[in-house]
Specification:
Helix content is 27%, strand content 24%. It has nine helices and 15 strands. The strands form two sheets. It has an eight-stranded mixed beta sheet. The chain has a seven-stranded mixed beta sheet with strand order 7-8-9-10-11-12-13, covered by helices on one side. It is globular, with a radius of gyration of 18 Å.
Length: 294
């Protein structure tokens, strides 16, 4: 039995992803309102009743919504965040409700287990949203099955060898491909915003994301990574085709075979069924786009 990895939304207007193992799901980020979140979950064959835990990467508004924090409190869903997120989250009434119900858990750099048994390893990233983390998530779809590993890295201005090490041998990997540098420079945006996005605490460009993909593949056993998901594409400073072409070139240069998918802001995509190494990941039924690789 595979593990489901579905990107519900990815971009500057909201981010959320689902990892479903067995009968309980893990939400990464809460950047959609309750109604939109419920609709996106339904679109990938899930629902709020099957969400057992939520974890936050950082506190920028496209990654956490006050109303969705309150939804977690109403449904008694445990919420994992970094201690450094507390000050920003304290302004949300729902966060105070979660705390009063003892549903807030704090992570640091050490791996932890969610209530449904997923192993989550936080990976520190470089971003201006306060403490910002990606995650390596591992789980067994069934008791005696081989573990499945997934990586999720969004919102980082640069990457390091330690980040590439943490993603070694994952079976599905989400990496930010935020912008094309030329489009960013010619965007007409304010100079400070361009400098911020191009800086070490901004967002990964297509070339930077491709460099990280190459580093991960160079460390990983052949056949381990089967699906690569491009996250947080800028609607103004990127094009899906540009990001996909750059990622595919990195894969091709490595000599590996990896399916490449560009996540979307407007609807859930991709919706993957991920299996352990040596077995091909498949894409669950869903919308098709002319620029996707599958």
């Amino acid at each position: 039995m595979p593990i489901q990895f579905a990107v519900l939304a990815s971009g500057s207007r909201g981010n959320a992803s689902l990892i479903q193992a067995g009968h309980a799901g893990l939400l990464i980020d809460l950047g959609l309102g309750p109604k939109a979140l419920a609709a996106r979950l339904e679109g990938v064959g899930a629902d709020l009743g099957r969400v057992g835990t939520a974890v936050l990467t950082h506190t920028h508004g496209d990654h956490v919504r006050s109303a969705t924090i309150r939804l977690l409190a109403a449904r008694k869903i445990p919420f994992y965040c970094h201690e450094g997120h507390r000050e920003a989250l304290a302004r949300f009434p729902g966060f105070r409700e979660l705390e009063s119900s003892r549903l807030v858990r704090h992570y640091d750099e050490r791996p932890f287990l969610t209530p449904m048994g997923l192993r989550v390893e936080p990976v520190e990233l470089s971003h201006d949203g306060g403490p910002t983390y990606g995650f390596r998530v591992e789980g067994r779809p069934e008791r005696r099955s081989r573990p499945v590993a997934l990586g999720y890295l969004a919102d980082s201005g640069c990457w390091s060898e330690a980040i590439a090490d943490a993603m070694t041998d994952v079976n599905a990997l989400g990496i930010e491909f935020n912008h094309d540098v030329t489009l960013q420079l010619n965007s007409g945006r304010a100079d400070y915003l361009i400098r911020r996005n191009l800086g070490d605490r901004g967002h990964l460009s297509n070339d930077q994301g491709a460099g990280l993909v190459s580093a991960v593949l160079g460390r990983s056993a052949p056949g381990s990574l089967r699906d690569l998901v491009l996250l947080h594409l800028s609607e103004q400073c990127n094009r899906p085709r540009l990001a996909l072409d750059r990622a595919r070139r990195a894969v091709r240069d490595s000599g590996r075979r990896v399916a490449v998918h560009a996540a979307r802001q407007s609807q859930p995509h991709p919706n993957l069924l991920v299996r352990a190494a040596r077995r091909r990941s498949t894409v669950a039924p869903g919308p098709s786009f002319p620029w996707e690789s599958d």
